[in-house]
Amino acid sequence: MRVMRPQRIWLAAVISGVFAHPVSAQQAQPPAPHQHAPAAKAAARAQEPSALDALRKRFDELLARTSTGSRRLDAKRKAQMFDEFLAWPKNPFEIELTVTRTWADGGAQFLGTIAIRNSEIMVAGRKEVALFIKPTLRSLSPGRYAFHVHENPDCGPAIKDGQLVPGLAAGNHLWLSGTGAMSGTTFTSHLGDLPDLEVEADGTARKEVVAARLTLADVVNRSFIIHASQDDTSPRMACALLK
Q1: Cα gap 114→99, rounded to integer Å
Q2: Residue 26 located in a structural domain
Q3: Would residue 211 count as lying in a domain?
Q4: Residue 49 CA, distance from chain mean position
Q5: Is the pLDDT assigned to residue 73 strictly greater than 90?
């Protein structure tokens, strides 16, 4: 007889509720086309609902439908369960994020969306967690573009060498660092380095990107940056964030 760990028991209960009541978490309507008034853009962004808040709300609704949700849970345990749910490969949520072109004045031209979800892939005969990223983008030049997860949930400009640089507030690429629990070996891993984004001849991008070892938990309070070319150091052309 197989005994399920407590974490798997409540996750299984939640997933049963998901299939009975399908839900998805989506961000707000796309922003208006680019305007050169930073104040107006900042106000528009402030009115957009948070994709992460929407996701938490949907999770709470799912939890309430399960036997687990019927018990009293303190805030700390509830937050821990939410984090576990975000990292779970079978998490059924798909989150749609708005992608905008970056500008030095903080403006934002709508380019489309990316939809992100957890799944699994086969690597050397074994299952590994992966984040699937489905772009629906337009108004881009054909070609391949460097694509990364960056450390900050901010698509705005920042100052470098006395100049405002578009998208610089997103910070550096996402890196994982730590020490092996058994070996004691210190390691770093460039988790934010995604496969290139491919734009077709008609200026649209629709080909799904698969990011091995990433989950929704890894990209919460992060940003996705599309660079201006395949060069990782090229300007930050477009951005989406999850916060």
Answers
A1: 7
A2: yes
A3: yes
A4: 15
A5: no
Fill in the amino acid letter for 174: L
Q: Which of 45, 33, 168 is nearest to 109 (CA)?
A: 33
Tokens of 221: 């309070």
Bridge partners of 170?
none
CB 238 within 8 A of CB 99: yes
In whole angstroms, give the CA distance from residue 229 to residue 143. Answer: 8
Q: Which of 218, 222, 215 has the alpha carbon at shortest distance from 240?
A: 222
Instruction: Note whether residue 1 is domain-resident.
Output: no
Alpha helices in the chain (DSSP H): 6-20, 38-47, 51-64, 67-70, 75-87, 216-219
**pLDDT for 36:** 45
**pLDDT tens for residues 180-234?**
455 555 545 678 999 999 999 999 999 999 999 899 999 999 999 999 999 999 9
pLDDT at residue 44 is higher than 80: no
CATH number of domain containing 135: 2.60.40.200
Q: 167-178 in b/e burial notation, b at 16+ Cβ within 10 A? A: bbbbbebbeeee
Query: Is the C-alpha dihedral spanning 169, 205, 220, 241 positive or negative?
Result: positive
Quick count: other Cβ atoms within 10 Å of Cβ 42? 13
Distance, in Å, from the CA atom of 143 to the CA atom of 44, rounded to the nearest integer, reads 31
Token pair recorded at residue 197: 């984004």
Distance CA 41, CA 54 (A): 22
| Nearest CA-CA partner of 220 in 242, 235, 204 | 242
